[in-house]
Design brief:
CATH superfamily: P-loop containing nucleotide triphosphate hydrolases
Strand order of the largest sheet: 2-3-1-4-5
CATH topology: Rossmann fold
Helix content: 40-55%
Strand content: 5-15%
Structural class: alpha/beta
Order of helices and strands: HEHEHEHEHHHHEHHHHHH
Shape: globular
Oligomer: single chain
Number of strands: 5
CATH class: Alpha Beta
CATH architecture: 3-Layer(aba) Sandwich
Largest sheet: 5 strands, parallel
Number of domains: 1
Length: 281
């Protein structure tokens, strides 16, 4: 019943947006899709993309969120579920996902029906954020009890770097967790965003986000008004998992032992993502 009510409210609001922007030709407004690596600014990107609803006939709330793993059980969803979810989206929707870059998904998302964005973060900050999230912020998480059972932060950080290879619930190391997302970086149809750029160089990054949509859909409002709408949409207090929003926090938590463990597990991941030039960090 709740899902039916949510759907009715969503469609009603979407029709309201269509009426609000009736003077604008609306046939060329594809789905706005925010793709994120977990703990990399998912809610921040969601808020920014929803900011387009102030200047274009986009929905004012997310259509839905998709993740490759079920949060409470940790069960990995079948690949066809991702395709079915993508097929459920319609023009002028805004949607969010932790979505693997499989070949069939790439073909679907890199089509004219979507304007995709991919946000990621320094994996060292990701593993630190993951520790706080699983241990303190999400009691229903499949790994919560395990993290709570560990004696200290250092052992939890090791687990977030190395994963849990000897359990029934799939949780590989940080490099293996990122690997299914890497191909998003190789597609020109997808705008790649470093989370750090939204914190340290937000104005320029918002321009990139705006221009990426403008290549595919008519944005009739002046650029300064669009950018103001995107900036005004950012509200960390409305993010249920927002903790600090800072960059480089890993430096406070990584001991030399953690650095060695991370380098052994991650290989050249930091270099691929542009965070380091070599492994001498």
């Amino acid at each position: 019943m709740k899902s039916i009510l949510r759907s009715v409210i969503y469609q009603t609001e979407k029709i309201t947006q269509q009426i609000r922007f009736a003077s604008i030709a609306q046939s060329n407004y594809p789905v706005l899709l925010g793709i994120s690596f977990p703990k990399s600014g998912t809610h921040l990107l969601d808020q920014i993309l929803l900011g387009f609803s102030k200047v274009a006939p986009y929905s004012t709330r997310l259509h839905s969120f998709y993740a490759e793993y079920e949060g409470e059980s940790g069960i990995k969803r079948a690949p066809e579920q991702a395709l079915a979810w993508l097929d459920s989206l319609r023009p002028r929707d805004v949607a969010s996902a932790h979505l693997f870059a499989r070949a069939d998904v790439l073909a679907r998302v890199c089509s004219p029906a979507f304007v995709p964005y991919f946000i990621f973060r320094d994996p060292r900050d990701v593993v630190v954020s993951h520790v706080f999230y699983v241990t303190d912020m999400e009691a229903r998480h499949v790994h919560h009890a395990y993290y709570q059972s560990l004696p200290d932060f250092d052992s939890r950080l090791n687990a977030s770097i190395l994963g849990r290879p000897n359990t029934d619930v799939e949780f590989p190391n940080i490099a293996e967790r990122f690997a299914p997302y890497l191909d998003w970086l190789n597609r020109p149809e997808v705008l790649s965003i470093h989370f750090e750029d939204l914190i340290e160089d937000r104005a320029a990054t918002l321009i990139r986000i705006m221009e990426h949509l403008a290549k595919r859909a008519a944005l009739h409002a002046p650029a300064n008004r669009i950018l103001e709408a995107l900036e005004a949409s950012i509200n960390p207090n409305k993010s249920p998992t927002f903790r600090s929003g800072k960059t480089g926090e890993w430096k406070k938590h990584f001991a030399e032992a953690h650095k060695k463990i991370f380098k052994d597990a991650a290989g050249d991941l930091l270099i691929k993502l542009g965070y380091e030039k070599n492994n001498d960090w």
